[in-house]
Amino acid sequence: MSPPAERSGRPDAPLHLVFVPFLARSHFAPLAAKAADACRQSGGVTTAAIVTTPHFASLAPPGVPVHVAGFRCPGGHEDFSHLQLQGVDDEASSAPAFFSAAEAALAPALEAALRDHDGPAAVVSDAVLYWAPRVARECGVPHVTFHTIGAFAAAAMVAVHLHRPEPFPDPFDVPGGFPHPVKLRRAQVNEEALAHFPLFRAAEAESCAVVFNSFSALEANFAAYYQSQLAGRPKKVFLVGPVLAAAAAASPRAVNGGAERDPILQWLDGRPAGSVVYVCFGSTCALGESQLRELATGLRASRRPFLWVIPAPGGEGGAAREERASSHGMVVAGRWAPQAEILAHRAVGGFVTHCGWNSVLEAVRAGVPLATWPLRAEQFVNEAFLVEVLRVGVRVREEADQVEALVPAGAVTRAVGRLMGNGQGEAEADAARRARARELGAAARAAVAEGGSSCRHWTGLVEELKALHGRDSDPQM
């Protein structure tokens, strides 16, 4: 590799941030949104660009420059989440093959983007892109690790990785002096992620700072714990969220040159305040036909109006694209839905969710309590955070260790009843849950408002990165 490029030492030159998201939509969205923020809200302090593939370049926010890297998709999968969804077993389409192809495409594109820029620069890359710190170092710029999961989940996994007891009981207390007593079942631990932890931690040790898409009022103590467990030289952890995906990438319908209000929101407009339960499992967390039938039966039996969004084609009844409303509720299948606007709508009183971190943050910001139904990865740990720590959630799955068992309709009905207030002696618990959700929502909105904690953290990170370029030494904190 060629030697590091000479860079401008002008103190007034804007800091150029090169964002490198992982090739999965849930990972791409928050980093791309933060890149848009860096372009739009910096007052000339920063500029930003994104390095990604043609598929994800089409999802980039308007106004953010994109360095497009040619990508040969293993097995034809351009989005890693789709590969996971389909449970591909052949070696050519495996997770290692996808990660290798991503590195082969993105690493040279990142290097070119850095060497073509004359001025102070830094890399902000997804935590799973373990090669990005090396590329940044070889180009003579600092690197920041961006986590698209929450600080609680990341801290819990580090605690289990470093301090797992032997023998490993079931259930077990999260070890290592964890800031909050939490019990997990062994089935809820993402062993595949833990197997790769040494690789990711070694890469993170080369970073000069760590960022979480979260905010201080939500996870400050878990971020501090995570910082205390970091390898390598001391570094700060910054909480800069909630960073929410920009709606501009969703291609809203246009009528007569203007944006038509989405039919989903129009349907919600006609419902009483707090009456609707919203159900969505993300864009890539699919349920089998048997589970879909149980879910539909349970929702109808709850006697609560519901809005059920199934983004992936297929869904209930197999419709590729369908919107229908009935006396029970509204089902939308096969298209994008404005989730942040849905959750913020006055009619929505609860959210049945897979506990993906982006969805959790959208619900938290909206002040909406949740019914938790995790399906994979760190979602099970997020469920523990929502139910046991924040106490803004109720579990749908009644046996925490039965992570692959069919959830019966009765469990869905009971969870929706508890979530929405069933009047069966749980009024006090429901009121407390809703009050906590509203408090967190106010704190989330305050964090990203001017002068809020997340804005201050981001400003502090940028100032430290700019300061590094004023030194003659190796640009590492």
UniProtKB/TrEMBL annotation:
The keyword Secreted does not apply. Gene3D superfamilies: Glycogen Phosphorylase B. Transmembrane segments: none annotated. It holds the Pfam family UDPGT. SUPFAM superfamilies: UDP-Glycosyltransferase/glycogen phosphorylase. Signal peptide: none annotated. Keywords: Glycosyltransferase, Transferase. One of its GO terms (molecular function) is UDP-glucosyltransferase activity. Its EC number is 2.4.1.-. The keyword Ubl conjugation does not apply. It is an enzyme of class 2 (transferase). It comes from the Eukaryota. Belongs to the UDP-glycosyltransferase family. This is Glycosyltransferase.
